[in-house]
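Good morning C.,

I know you're traveling, so I'll keep this short. The sequence:
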Amino acid sequence: MTQLRWPSRADLQVALVGCLIVGVACVVAYWVVTTTEPHVYPRARWSATQVGALWAVISTIFVLRESYDKSTAAVVSRLSSTSVSFALCLIYLIFLPFHVWALGLLVGASALAVILLGRPGDAVSAGISSAVVMIASRLDPQHAWQQPILRFADTVVGVVVGIVAAWLALRIIRPRLPPGPGQGQGQGQGDAAATE
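The tokens, ready to paste straight into the viewer:
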């Protein structure tokens, strides 16, 4: 059984900086979507823009990991699962409006598609992406087919903000902090030293 221990001052410092980076990155992702989407897509309703901002923030959080290699792998995962969801939902919404049974069908079909494509770890993310797209399509039923496109764009914003924040954190900020838990001298940068 693992014993709980009080974190050291260095551990707390690393954790606080990491949480600050996540928070600032989320604010940036939210700001980018809420300030650009109404100009790029003037017909966007306020509620649809907020869903897009939420989706960008979720993508940013999803991408920020403890190492840059894990963050880039998360980018691939996020984009592949969203692409499958985007394609399936777009095909459906071009021809048919939202229906609760279609929601269930597309969530399951998205998960199955990424499993068949050899990425079973992306099944949950693909299903969630389809759920968000389909439910967002109810906010603007006259232009429901545009939701997959908008949500894909929001995902791209989120992963770009996330990977930039990960790079800044692991290459510039964390090397200036004391080593974190279980790290020896010179290893406090996650995998920064190993990938350079």
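Safe travels,
E.
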